[in-house]
Each structure stands twice: as C-alpha cells, then as structure tokens.
Amino acid sequence: MKRKLTLKLIAKELDVSISTVSKALRDSAEISEDTRQKIKAFAKLYNYKPNNIALSLKNRKTRTIGIIIPQIVHHFFTTVIRGIEQMAREHNYNVIITLSNNDFDKEVLNMELLANGSTDGFIVSLAKETLHKDDFRHLTEAIDQGMPVVMFDRIVDEIPCDKVMIDDREGAKMGVMHLLKTGCRKIAIITTKDYVTIGKLRTKGYIEALESYGVKVEKDFILKLDTIDHCGDDCSAKIKNFLKDKDIDGVFTVNELFAVTAAKHLTAIGKNIPNDVSIVSFSDGELSQHFIPSLTTVSQHGELMGRKAAELLINKLERPEEEVEEYTTAYIDTSLIERESTKKIK
Amino acid sequence: MKRKLTLKLIAKELDVSISTVSKALRDSAEISEDTRQKIKAFAKLYNYKPNNIALSLKNRKTRTIGIIIPQIVHHFFTTVIRGIEQMAREHNYNVIITLSNNDFDKEVLNMELLANGSTDGFIVSLAKETLHKDDFRHLTEAIDQGMPVVMFDRIVDEIPCDKVMIDDREGAKMGVMHLLKTGCRKIAIITTKDYVTIGKLRTKGYIEALESYGVKVEKDFILKLDTIDHCGDDCSAKIKNFLKDKDIDGVFTVNELFAVTAAKHLTAIGKNIPNDVSIVSFSDGELSQHFIPSLTTVSQHGELMGRKAAELLINKLERPEEEVEEYTTAYIDTSLIERESTKKIK
DNA sequence: TTGTATGCGTTATCAA
DNA sequence: TTGATAACGCATACAA
C-alpha cells in the first residue's frame, strides 16, 4: 500500500526544503523559475494533492458545508441538495450530507461528527423525532460554538439562526383556492398533527381559503395524522375510514403519499377523480406525475430553497468576525402545477 | 463568536500541561484521581469534544467511509445507505455521502475531495456518464494511493476492488419465469443499452428464462433504451411506439419507471393489467407499491447490499498492511414480490 | 504523578 | 532565492 505523496516526500526526493516545495507549488515569486518548474513537474507526475485535513487544521476552516436531513427518498430533498451544491460550487465550498433517518439520536450524532472539525456550518432539516421531543440542544450547542446554522423545511422558530421556508400557509391556500375555483365546496384536508409546523401552517391556509370563499369549515373534514414520511397500513386505514361515507367533492393533502392513498380509497368506493372528487396535494415527488390520474400539486421549488439556504450560510461564514448577529428568514414561493386530478377552471 | 474549546485552553485554565489534560480525559492511570476528576468535570461542564480534524491528521485515519452515488432519489440507494450506515455504526465508523448527479466531472471532484484526507475508503456506484465515457482514472488513482474501494450496483469488471452485486441475470430470470408460470408466452422486455451492465445481464436472464420454457426469443420484443434514471417524453414515446400493435401478454422491465410508463400506455390502448398483459419489474421504489395496479417486482434487498459493501470495506481498512491484495465479489439475492400486475399461478 | 518534546501535513514568518 | 521554525489540536514516548 503506497503512502500518499506529501510535501515532505517531494522535498526529500528533490533535495530541497519543505517550504521551498510548498512555495513553488503555490507559484510564489520567491522561488526561482528553475526550481519551481522542477518541483511542479515532479508533483504533477506523481499526482500530488494537498492533504485537506492538514489544511483544515491549519486554516481552522474546512470550506465544507454539512447538510443534515431526515431522509433522502423524498424528491424534494434531492432538489434542495442540488440547489445547495450549485451555490456551494459557485463559492468554492464542498458539501457533505448525512442522514438522520428521522431518528433523534442519529441526528445528534451526525451533528457532533460534523461539528468537531469537518464542517464550517450546517444546513439542517430536523428529524421528525426531534420535533416531537422538542429537544434542540444539539443545535443550540453548535450555534453557541460559533457554527452558523441554516434551517429549512422543518423549522423551529425559537432557534436563533437563519431560516428558509416556503410560505406553507400561502401555498396551501393557493391549492385549496384552486379546488374552490374549479367548483368544489365540500373540501376535506388530510394533514399532520400540529407539532409539525408545516402541517399546522398548511391547515391554516386551508381554513383561510375556505373562509375567503365563505365556505364553512367543518371539523369533520379535517384529518390530522401522526406520520409524515410514509403512509403505512395504520395511516392508510385511518384515511380510508375518514373518507368512508363522507360527502365531499375535494381533498387537499399536505403530501403526496396521503394524496395517493386517498385517491386509492376513493377509487375503491367507486368515486371518479376528478369528476366526483378532485385532489390537490403538496408535493415534489415523482409519484404525482406517474400516478393515474396524475395529481395536481403545490410545488415547492426545492432547488431555489437550497440555493437560498447555501447563500445565507456562506454569507455568515464569510462575514467579518465582529459583525453583529442578525438572523433572516427567507421565504420561497410555491407554485401550482395543474394535472389530471382536478377539473378545469371554467 | 466563541472559540471552540481545546486541550490547550483547558490546560491554561486549570494550570496544568496539555498532556495532563489529554491523559486525564482518556482515563490514563498515570494521572492522579484528583486532577483527573477536576479536568473531566471542567471538560464536561464546557462540553469539550476533541477535534476530529486533529485526530485524523494524527492517526492518519478518519474512521469515515465515503459514499459516492449518482442519485439519491432512488429508494434503492436509500436502502443501501441505510445498510452501510448500520454496519458502519457497529464498527464505529462514520459515513459521509456525496452525490454525482450522474455527472462525470462531479464524481471525479467528489472523489478527490474525499480522497484527500476526509475518508479512509469509498463505497461507489458509478455515474451513468462515467460508464458511458469508460474513464475510470479517478477510481484507479484512488486505489493506487491505497484507498480501499468497494463498488456496488453499477460495476466495472476491470477495476481491481471488492464488488457487491445482485445477481441481475438470476433476478431477471426469476421475474420472467414468474410471467411464464402465470401463463404468459408472448413476453416483451424493456431494458437499457448494453453498456449498462445491469441492463445487459437482465436481458440475458430474460432470454434464459424464455429458453428454459422453450419460448422463442423475438428480437422485436426487446426494447433497449438509453436512459436509466428517468423516463422523459422521448423515452415515453419510444415505449409507446414499441407497445403499439404488439401482440404481447407480458412485459418485463428493468426498472420501475419503464414499468409504470408501459402500464400507462397499455391501459391507454385498452389493455387490462394483468388480464391482457402482465407486468413484472425490477424495482425498489415506492412507485410499485402505490401504482394502480400495484406492480409485481423483483426486489433488490438494498439494505443487505449496503451492509455487505460496508463489511468488505471495513475488512480492508482493518486488515494488516502486509496482507496480499485479494478482491472478492459478493452476490446478494433478489426476491420476487407478487402484487396486482401479474396473475396468480394456477 | 506531571510535564516536555515530537510528529501528523500544511503554510506563514522570519532568517540566512 | 532558499530554508528553518512555529503553529493548527491532539496523542504519546520519554524525561523529570
């Protein structure tokens, strides 16, 4: 097993000092053209690459951004990551991803791993379990130690850091408005329990839309589920039960899996989509496009979100030390993608 | 912005030497009970965590495994990652992921980033573009420098490293056999061009299955597409065209998106699934479960694959230096998951 | 029982 | 123009 090439080895081989090698490789004017050429040729030949670890230690900077997210299956997260990577690349930063699998302990572990030297700052979407536990010490500790943090998607208001969100309330409102505009009046919502901020806000948007149309909000028409990231048998049964015998002509869901599950149960009891019941869902997944009928969705522009998050983080990383702390919350617009699960506006 | 706590700072604060602090924190017997307690209490109070970068530099080991994959949307990769992380955790390794987005340059960049100190070894699934370019210098360079590499999923035979594969030929054969067993005889396959190893092998399994049943292989029944990871308009049109007017009673596809697309076009021309045409697909996605009808699939056990890949890598990392190089290829079994897109075996 | 010195790979400062 | 030295944060062999 060959040892990696270091300045020291090059120096020994060429019989010069380490610092001469270092300077030559960085094109320092101090070094004579001759030796510089010689050293550079040698380094190139043997494919010398400086050791990032040593550089990080020396500079106390890694130029690496850490991303901590719950799951990666979601198409949404992929698009966010892409956005982050774009922006990072433009500013010469690298990106490293770790997954929490929606597990609190793992989120903490991952943060500690990355916080102890591997990363200059974090972009985080919290694990479900973390939100549930309401325990954010790992975040506040990182922040206390001077690690800039940007939260996105799953936000907690009280954490002092930059945040990037979509306007969930507005987005939900837009989705429900679309249902209203296409003629629906008996609209149910399948959402999450209120401890998930996004669920709460989207429920709010739903209510606002109905009210703006003078439609009464029926408590019976609101289903709040515990799960977010997948829809197991239990969740499916709850949706089935919720839809059974309900006189509705529209369903709004806060994610794609709820929508698909609802669509299945509706179809099973003989309802036609969109003629009997229309469906609109928050989503960024592939499911919506490929499902039959394809689903009208409120789309989240994950790439923009990622770019914005990275931009905020890099700003913090490169701002002069003395500057006052100041946290901004950026909002990313949503947009409606019409597909087959809703009727045309007349 | 507070500076991170270091041994040096603790030492100064407590008026002892750095090595005393270091030893105390590592419970060295050299240090008196008294000072040890004092130091540990202080460290705990101020939440001291050793700097990983410094440790890595010192030990020339990071205890970190780097994963380089093309895309993460695929449910399959998520399960593989989970497997890797499990095994890594059990052996006290950490895991870092980077995405190539199926882009060659990015794959190279990512490998270089991680190779220059951040990781002890790699687990890699190659980008599509890399396979296409047939340029693997970044891999061989890493290997030459003593970085152990394990390839999975998208393999290249000539690279000297450990490999984890599923038996694509066997899996495809099993899928097609199922179609045969349920009575299909006119079975088409939608696969990838042969430069993608998995596509090639699966095509082979398809042919073997047919032959074992004495069914003639029709060239017309084989569609080789260029894309792998998504199925855009162009790809969809090709599938549509391929299926049009074709007298078939079964379709086998090498991925879920091809299957869904095929199912749509078949339904559109009035075919019932599974009564007129049955479908079996290679897949690990959510689409198969949620599609209507849900799809019978050949499942890949990504988690096992991940575990195996990590195990092989860790073995290499912890083996004594002098040992001879020896590369193994591990095969992971596939299994058939029956759903609604195929008929029952009589 | 505690402290000093050295090295991991790099760069920056200063001396030669 | 080149080289020696110190420092980044840590662990450890050795000296006190």
TrEMBL record, chains A, B:
<keyword id="KW-0804">Transcription</keyword>
<protein>
    <submittedName>
        <fullName>LacI family DNA-binding transcriptional regulator</fullName>
    </submittedName>
</protein>
<dbReference type="InterPro" id="IPR010982">
    <property type="entry name" value="Lambda_DNA-bd_dom_sf"/>
</dbReference>
<dbReference type="Pfam" id="PF13377">
    <property type="entry name" value="Peripla_BP_3"/>
</dbReference>
<keyword id="KW-0805">Transcription regulation</keyword>
<dbReference type="InterPro" id="IPR000843">
    <property type="entry name" value="HTH_LacI"/>
</dbReference>
<dbReference type="InterPro" id="IPR028082">
    <property type="entry name" value="Peripla_BP_I"/>
</dbReference>
<dbReference type="GO" id="GO:0003677">
    <property type="term" value="F:DNA binding"/>
</dbReference>
<dbReference type="InterPro" id="IPR046335">
    <property type="entry name" value="LacI/GalR-like_sensor"/>
</dbReference>
<dbReference type="Pfam" id="PF00356">
    <property type="entry name" value="LacI"/>
</dbReference>
<keyword id="KW-0238">DNA-binding</keyword>
<feature type="domain" description="HTH lacI-type">
    <location>
        <begin position="5"/>
        <end position="59"/>
    </location>
</feature>
